[in-house]
Amino acid sequence: MKQNRLPQNYSIKNIIDSILADNPKARNLTRTRKKQLYKNSLNLLENCSALKELISLSRIRSYPHEGAKNFARVGLLPPEMVIVDQRLKDLCQMPYWIFRPDAGGEKTKHFDRCPGYGKLPGCPPNSCPVEEVEGKLKKADLFIVFQTRLTSKRGDLAVWKFHVLNRLKRDVEKSLGEGAVIEKYGSGPCAACKTIACMTGKPCKTPKLKTISLESMGICVDRLCEDLADLTGQKAWKINWIKHFGFPQQKPKSWKYVEALAVKLP
């Protein structure tokens, strides 16, 4: 059966590259400076053996959560290299083709912004202001990034990444002290509450588990992964932006999830 051709979506990659070219912090970070900052971060981690063991890939993959083995890479960046920009949050308002239930409950095709915008407390414009995000990053010593292997799991099928991140946060604070994790950053909608109480206007049932995505905080995930690919030599860190997400024409058919922790050393 021949598939209907969908109109070409915006090039997210081109928009992100334009934002980075116009962001003063991103412009001023030369490759030489990045390598120097990265080396300093590696030295900090070497001097904290407890944290080094906790964030090892083998340990994370050993967590008793189905899907923990989907984590494929752990990387380290200095917080100074994390780019935060309001315009990255604004991308959540950019319309795209999406299947959404109509008044009768039937899923129909619409060209509209993300359905979570303005509804979920972890989604713009309700998510943290970029100034607050940058303020927390300045308090951190290390920015630890976790990336999964390619997967096609969505929704409830991907809550393992949420459980692993929160389990790791607890382990880090148990070892380094309460407050050692300045902030945690998820990927996609928060999975702290199965009933998604916040969608119905009710307060969060588990605020300590509430996990806001990197993108919703205005953090440039694309740059995080490109920098890690360059600094580590592992090209697998790079990500490809999906076109026509959720449609038969979707390309590529699988993707990677990216999460992070900002940590302050004792």
- The succession of helices and strands, N to C, reads HHHHHEHEEHEHEHE
* Helix percentage range: 25-40%
Structural class by helix and strand composition: alpha+beta
- Provide the gyration radius in Å: 19 Å
Number of helices: 9
Distance between the termini: 61 Å
Number of strands: 6
Instruction: Indicate the low-confidence ranges by residue numbers.
Output: none
For the biggest β-sheet, the strand order reads 1-4-6-5
Percent of sequence in beta strands: 5-15%
How is this structure best summarized?
The chain is of the alpha+beta class. It is built from 9 helices and 6 strands.
Core attributes:
33% helix; 9 helices; alpha+beta; globular; 266 residues; single chain
Commentary on this structure:
This protein is of the alpha+beta class and 266 residues long. The chain contains 9 helices and 6 strands, in the order H-H-H-H-H-E-H-E-E-H-E-H-E-H-E. It has helices at 12-22, 24-28, 31-46, 49-54, 57-61, 86-90, 130-139, 160-176, 221-232; strands spanning 71-77, 96-101, 107-112, 142-148, 181-185, 258-263. A 4-stranded antiparallel β-sheet has the order 1-4-6-5, with helices on both faces. It has a two-stranded antiparallel sheet with strand order 2-3. Strand 2 and strand 3 form a beta hairpin. The longest helix has 17 residues, at 160-176. The protein is globular, with a radius of gyration of 19 Å. 31% of the residues are buried. The model has no long low-confidence stretch (mean pLDDT 89).
